[in-house]
Structure formats: C-alpha cells, structure tokens
Amino acid sequence: MLKMYVNAAHTDWDTYLPRLLWAYRTAHQETLGDTPFFCMYGRDPIQPLHLAFVNQEPLWRSDELPQWRRKQSAWFMATRKLVEAQLLRGQNRDAAAKDGQRKVDYQPSDSVWVYQYFHKTRNPEDLRVNKFAYHWHGPYRIFAKQGDNTYRIYLPTHPDRVVPINVDRLKLFRGHWTRPFNDEIPEGYADPSEPSATQQATDDTILDEALLPTDSLIERIDFTDGDVAYSNASTPVLAIIDKRNEPPREVEYLVQHADGKSYWTPRSKLGDYTSFVTEYEDRRRRLNDLPVLRRSPRVSAMDSEAVVQEY
Fold first, then answer.
1. What is the pLDDT of residue 253?
2. What range(s) does the Integrase p58-like C-terminal domain occupy (predicted)?
C-alpha cells in the first residue's frame, strides 16, 4: 500500500506508515474473519472517541479482578479457536480455487503484463526502494507460442526482435488499471539473481532496462528554445536536496529533476511544487532537532479571500 502514497524518490514513506498500519490492522480480513488487531489482542482497538467516554464505566472492586481474569482467559481461548477454524476454511477455499484453475492460453497479438524484478542501481544518489517500485511492465504483445510453457513476445523498443518468456511471468492486459500488485510473484522468481530450473529449461529471458517499454522509463526532451520536458513522469521535480540563501539574491533550492540532474532554482519558480519545499524544510528541521512547523487551521482560514456579494 505504501507505493500508492510515497513520492517518486521514496523519501516520505515514514509519514504514511503509521496511518497505513492502523488501516491494515483495523480492516476486516476475509481469511481471518475479523480484524488483525482483534485476532492479536482479543478486543477491538481503542480509538480517540472511546477515550471521551472512559469515565462512564463503573468503578471496579478489588474482589472482581480474579473473575475478570478468568473471563478474559476464556474469551481469548474462544477467539483463538474461532480464528483457527476460519484459517482452515480459508485454506480449503484457496485449495479448491487452485484445483479449479484452468490452463492459460494466450493468442497471437494479445496484450500482456510481464513480470520483471526491479533492480536498483549502484548510484548512491538513487533513493528508490525496491519494495515501492513496480515489477510488472507492459503492455507487451504476444508473437507466438513456443512449447507448453513459453511464449515469444514483441519488444516495443526493438520492433525487429522477439524474446521467449515463461508463461508464469505473464498476465493478461485489460488496461493500465489492471497492473498486478508486487506481491503477485511468479513461482520460482522470488530471487531474481538466481534463475530457477524452469527459467533455464525454457530459455527464459530476463529483461533489462533496454528491453522495457518506453512508458516504464523517464525520457528527457530538450526543446530548441531551451525549455525541458519529461515523458512518463507525473512531475518533473523528483526531490529538493539542498538550499542556499545569499542576500540580496532570492533563496534558491537545489532541485533534482526526473532525469536525475540537479539545478539551482529560485523559490519564486517553485510555486507549483510547494509540497517538495515543505518536505525539504521539515526534513531539515528534524535533522537539526527542531519541531516541524505546522500551520494552524484558523490562520489558514484567514488566508482565503472573502467572498464579495454584489446586489
């Protein structure tokens, strides 16, 4: 879930981690039959609203403690048996679903996703994290079937070349919204540095960056008037890595762009990237053991312009 919220540089994951953990632990799990928090502690989590009514319960007496402990012990045992039974039902359901799986058969010209593990570069400035990167790329197009477990696919970057790919690394492409999650790892491909026996037997191909689709990479476009644009990137700014203030000049930030290059940019030209500036300033204050600045909602409301009604 983190990769849905972190920025392109993967530097703000710790901001979202507590909230996502809370959402995960309090969400109902179909296999468990309840929330992970309930299965762990035998009770629902205490939320801030519950603290407002904490003094509404009657006071306990000292002779009630043994009875309460016996009641809690029985409740935990009942919860454990309930979860174990639910897990067994989930395992049986998964086994039945696997038994009912049918053989995948792709036709020529079908569009597919291809699994390729994300390899991080050795560049120390590359802050990307493997677990936040996509491992399914595409769409690729089927050229022909080669054996029972291998298909040959076209390469968008090399139209005159086709490569063999094991069927376990393929999923049908129905649109960009159908990109599989990273935890859907084909069997035998957990460790990309050591090809499995299936890969060696079918002469499977490990795709490098040169063989990935163009929409999996970021391309820098230079115009004749000196302007620069980036393709396949949600924002041209990747991160802000430094700051300098030399009066009477304007405050400047060292901005790292999507292509990896960095330029000193005045603050006035970063109006559309205020979130990057705020993130850098907060990170800088934390390194100096200073509290992060937070704007009061009342002060923010004063910034909005008053609506003038004309009659």
1. 92
2. 138-171
